[in-house]
Specification:
Blueprint: H1 13-43, H2 47-79, H3 91-122, H4 131-152
């Protein structure tokens, strides 16, 4: 756990749950992309493209290896210790809010990435002049959501 830079147990339970979900989402995406790139490289007939795709697959596997210790630590923290099974009178409300925040974070992350991807694919900002504003607003929306979560979780 030394590479994690501190004790995850110092975070509030609701924060650990949110972090665990983000890490699990990242880990799943990294694994999925590693498999996709490896398969694409194996089926592709162009050697330079195959080599580049194989490099991407290896890079994704390196990310998987880097994220796995954090994912394991979060699983351990969330399933053991003094917080397991503890229910406050506001637990149902907190669980409901946590689920809603979780859904909102997934949506906001996906939108922020999609706006950046759209800008890269269009290339010419003149094709959709509102795009930079929309992308910047998406980033602010996610930041605002994070601020609200940190304040009210």
């Amino acid at each position: 756990m030394a590479d994690l830079g501190g004790s995850l147990e110092t975070l509030p339970v609701s924060r650990r749950v949110a972090v665990a979900e983000v890490v699990q989402e990242m880990l799943a995406n990294e694994r999925e992309l590693a498999a996709l790139y490896a398969d694409f490289a194996a089926r592709n007939p162009l050697p330079p493209l195959s080599a580049a795709l194989a490099e991407l697959a290896q890079a994704k596997l390196a990310h998987v290896a880097a994220l796995e210790p954090l994912a394991r630590a979060l699983d351990s923290v969330l399933t053991s210790g003094p917080t397991r099974g503890v229910r406050s009178t506001n637990a149902a409300a907190a669980d409901w809010r946590g689920a809603e925040f979780s859904r909102a974070f997934r949506g906001e992350r996906a939108l922020e990435v999609a706006y950046r991807e759209l800008a890269a694919l269009l290339g010419d900002p003149g094709l959709f002049p509102s795009l930079p504003r929309l992308a910047a607003e998406a980033a602010r929306h996610r930041a605002r959501l994070r601020e609200l979560y940190l304040r009210y979780s």
